[in-house]
Specification:
2 domains, Endonuclease Iii, domain 2, single chain, elongated, Endonuclease III, domain 1, mainly alpha, 215 residues, binds iron/sulfur cluster
């Protein structure tokens, strides 16, 4: 990467940090288990909706041992409003059984073990690693993928390559924070259908904006 491009990326990261300092997960959780379950529930659902369901769920069923006392139907009824409740219920209960059988009821803290759990893809695993275990990781969801590629922090067709490119282009100690900054920007300004480029503090640095202005 040439010096000018490195400077552009550094400037973007600086402005994101300035504007979204302290940005963190919008899911409510108290420990790795709760974050794991909340993140499984958040697939194709909003964090706000998940946060409506999880406080009561975790109060009653705080760990895998308690959760597996539920049948798929019973858990499905509790998490119904999060969508895809049958699949999520099955995956959560199966995940709980594996946590008990293979990890002493604890959530494993490595990518390989996490991604073997049902309902846990690479994105969910990275969310858990960075937020619950403080590891440097970039979880690439739809917001991170879209915003990174518009800004030119990555140039990739799929989330996996976006993740790899972000890991190359962003200093490691900023990976986890940058994940949150990009999500915040995607939710508030750089929305999927209608990015608010006119009011975006990154417009002078953005490849998408510049391409559209020159089109
Ligand atoms: S200028 Fe537009 S496309 Fe670029 S980051 Fe801002 S809102 Fe998104």
């Amino acid at each position: 990467m040439n010096k000018a491009e490195q400077n552009r990326i550094n400037e973007i990261l600086g402005l994101l940090e300035e504007n979204y300092k302290g940005a963190g997960s919008e899911l409510k959780y108290k420990n790795p288990f709760e974050l794991l379950i909340a993140t499984i529930l958040a697939a194709q659902c909003t964090d706000r909706q998940v946060n409506k369901v999880t406080p009561d769920l975790f109060a009653e069923y705080p760990g895998p041992e308690e959760m597996i006392t539920l049948t798929e139907e019973e858990l499905g009824a509790i998490i119904h409003s999060c969508g895809f409740y049958k699949t999520k219920s099955r995956n959560i209960l199966q995940t709980c059984r594996i946590l008990l059988a293979e990890y002493g009821g604890q959530v494993p803290d490595d990518l390989e073990s996490l991604t073997k759990l049902p309902g846990v893809g690479r994105k969910t695993a990275n969310v858990v690693l960075s937020n619950a275990f403080g590891r440097d990781a970039i979880a690439v969801d739809t917001h991170v993928h879209r915003v990174s590629n518009r800004l030119g922090l990555a140039d990739a067709k799929d989330v996996l390559n976006t993740e790899f490119q972000l890991m190359e282009n962003i200093p490691k100690h900023k990976w986890s924070a940058a994940h949150h900054w990009l999500i915040f920007h995607g939710r508030r300004v750089c929305k999927a259908r209608k990015p608010d480029c006119e009011n975006c503090f990154l417009q002078h640095l953005c490849k998408y904006r510049n391409k559209n202005l020159n089109a």
